[in-house]
Specification:
This protein is of the alpha+beta class and 60 residues long. Helices cover 27% and strands 33% of the residues. The protein has helices at 16-20, 43-53; strands at 4-10, 25-31, 34-35, 56-59. A four-stranded mixed sheet has the order 3-2-1-4. A hairpin with a 2-residue loop joins strand 2 and strand 3 (34-35). It comes from Pseudomonas nunensis. This is Filamentous hemagglutinin.
Length: 60
């Protein structure tokens, strides 16, 4: 069984729509190197969603 990982992105890697809201970082859930969620606006939101999806491993 593959793990769900949390990947953070910062700066220009953050989608423009989030940067326009003033966010300089966002988080994605990843499984087997593929995104399984859209950009999330906080680490706690990413952690909560990951708990629903399975085991979590935090990566930077």
């Amino acid at each position: 069984m593959s793990q769900v990982q949390i990947m953070s992105v910062v700066g220009s890697a953050v989608p423009a729509s989030l940067r326009e809201m003033g966010l300089l970082a966002c988080w994605y859930l990843m499984r087997d190197g593929e995104p399984v969620s859209g950009p999330l606006t906080s680490l706690p939101a990413a952690q909560a969603l990951s708990q629903k999806m399975g085991t979590v491993l935090l990566i930077a």
